[in-house]
Amino acid sequence: MSVLPVSEQGLGERTAQQRRYLMCRPEYFAVTYAINPWMDPAAGADAGKAVAQWEELRATYLTLGHEVSLIDPVEGLPDMVFAANGALTVGGRAYGARFTYPERQAEGPTYTEWLRRNGYAEVLDAEHTNEGEGDFLALDNMILAGTGFRTEIAAHQEAQEFLGRPVVTLRLVDPRFYHLDTALCTLDGENVAYYPAAFSPGSRAVLAQLFPNAILAAERDAAVLGLNAVCDGRNVIVNAEASDLISAFQHHGYNPVPVDLSELRKAGGGPKCCTLELR
Ligand code: ARG
């Protein structure tokens, strides 16, 4: 791997931590309904191309030394490839998703059943609407939680009570960035990158206070879902089109690993959406 530029803040070389991810091959991927502004059923999408791009993402994780588990795709659930939405796992507990739209509702129990069968003894079937890691992003000392389009604030409270970690509510205001993970990504357990205009003024102030050293993305990088990135503390798997954001990651001492998930973006997803972290 290439030599990393030392970050501006003199933090030196970043270290990667091995992660466990859950993914779902997009065998039945399609754009047959529209539940976010990225989706156009008239334009459709190519499942074969989506599978090829997804395989590259999976291979990238394996090359970087991460573990990838697979959940079987279900016919008739075209968005199931977006595994991040299936749950939020923290400290060996899994908080299950309860999807907003009927088109995706069957995914919730499918993911929680997988988690129960694969080592999670404590799995909560949520009472309140929430879309897992689409709207919940865990840092070392807190969980950031989006609301405004999908996940209800009551779910933020439910997750805090079940997981025993502080949950910070952030309000999303731009329908293109309907999930928190389309507008913000975690970097090293303490820092984040985000697109400020996706958040309400109050939430922007909260983010500025919590993360004075955050990487701020410009609109054109956010608009190719550049913030839907996955970071292991050092490597950042990021949509290849987000060129200024990629430079910013590099400048801050991270190692950007560009991927092409353009076919999955037709449903409003990127690398992070395809990836549920198993903690
Ligand atoms: N079409 C899916 C939806 O609108 C995309 C989900 C993307 N996932 C994510 N974590 N942002 O629900």
From TrEMBL:
The keyword Flavoprotein does not apply. Keywords: Hydrolase. It comes from the Bacteria. NCBIfam families: DiMArgaseDdahMtb (NF045659). Belongs to the DDAH family. This is Amidinotransferase. The lineage of its organism: Bacteria, Bacillati, Actinomycetota, Actinomycetes, Streptosporangiales.
